[in-house]
Amino acid sequence: MHISRPKGTIDFLPEDASKRRHIEELLRNAALLFNYSEIRTPAFEKTELFRRGIGENTDIVSKEMYSFSNNEFTLKPEMTAPVIRAYIENSLYNIAPVQKLYYIANMFRHERPQAGRFREFSQFGAEAIGSGDFRIDVELISFCNFFLNSFGINNFKILLNNIGSLSERRLFLEDLKDFLKGHETALSDDSRRRLVINPLRILDSKDPADIKILETAPVIFNYLNDDNKKHLGDVMNGLTRLGIVFEVDYRLVRGLDYYTSTTFEIVSSELGAQNAILGGGRYDMLIEQLGGKPAPAIGFACGLERLSMILEKNSYQYPAERKIDLYIVTSGDIAREKSLDILYSLRSKGILCETDYLNRSVKAQMKEANKLGVSYAVVIGSQEIETGTLRIKQMETGKEEIITFDGIINYKYV
RNA sequence: GCGGGUAUAGCUCAGUUGGCAGAGCGUCAGAUUGUGGCUCUGAAUGUCACGGGUUCGAGCCCCGUUACUCGCCCCA
Known about the structure:
The structure is a single chain. An eight-stranded mixed β-sheet has the order 1-5-6-11-10-9-7-8. Strand 9 (about 260-265) and strand 10 form a beta hairpin. The longest helix is centred in the N-terminal third of the chain and has 20 residues, at about 15-35. The protein has helices at about 15-35, 45-55, 60-65, 80-90, 135-150, 165-180, 190-195, 210-215, 225-240, 285-290, 305-315, 335-350, 360-370, 380-385, 405-410, and strands spanning about 35-40, 45, 65-70, 75, 100-110, 120-130, 155-160, 245-250, 260-265, 275-280, 295-305, 325-330, 355, 375-380, 390-395, 400-405. Helix 2 packs across helix 4 (about 80-90). The mean pLDDT is about 95. It is of the alpha+beta class. The radius of gyration is 28 Å and the shape is elongated. It is about 40% helix and about 20% strand. The protein binds one RNA strand of 76 nucleotides through helix 3, strand 6, helix 7, strand 10 and strand 11.
């Protein structure tokens, strides 16, 4: 029996890796345009960071973390807490009052894999720290809209909500609980359980009976203070101004404890059950909670596997890799030895070249050259060694040109 | 943690009522001495996921296990 990769992990074979590199490149370009700077943090952190950041009672912390060394460290299950840790630890607020950071990194969660969900997965995300201005909310959401569009994706929905501060949410939660208790017998089993553990999540239920009940449930908007109501209105106006289509969804809640005020999610019908491409929101209290000087902040995280699933569904045309310029066909020991320094010289000049390492027939080597899609091929055998000249063949036209050995190095490969 | 589905060549998959293990693609080689694509010929690659059971005989039927996969939960 062979050893297989761990459940929920991915091998990126050369073609997949090439696609992923392209995705990352477009994302980095978008980040550059919106003036977000890259941040990289360790693959693991002190477990305490996630306990305090994400929340002890979330599923992520209570049962999905990969922890080790007597539970002292944990592979990062999300990136916001590490970014904020780095922000505080390195006093980034002293460098500039507003920090706009982005990352592309791998996360780890011990979950049961399914479509669009893995145990090791990649996220592209950004955090804007230091401003509570509605315009940074608009900018961040427009950033998401922009990079999705840059892949030609436009079949998605932007869902927007404002979940208020902790105190507003507490009041809402009490009323929601009271309301749901009145309908307890009609609720799904899952939702009855959630009523005790996390009633907010019932708003997200997929059960048709639950959805019916929720139609008359209390609405969080009515519990927001004037500031948050205005903030939501401002964000809506801002997005409208940019021509960005969105939907306000008062039932949109997020699963991590640190969110406050603005929350948003982008969903796609192309994805299956896990339909969120990205999710994010404000977390104005988190920095203080983690021991930093209070600062408002907003961020999002986008699942790269989900993004590439959509691209596959859309038959996205990935750009071709750079082709090999020259294939060196060799025949005989002297030629094979000679090929060593020719290859090295060519590569030193930035020319992509390859040769055969199996001592195969000239015909087999030409086939190989053709398969690789090289632009030129040259045969080096005893004749060429004797005369000091060789013929370089343009593969597409089949035309040959006579050149010297030095000529290979200086040839204009187009 | 709980459910549904699937498992045959490197890949995509056929395999009838239980009766010799298959196709296409890919790989490799050959088709007159040292030249690719097209075509033709040939070759290699299998613990039919694993372990039991039924049967004269199991890829096929039954039981168990594992893996993969899609859902629930939760989330990107």
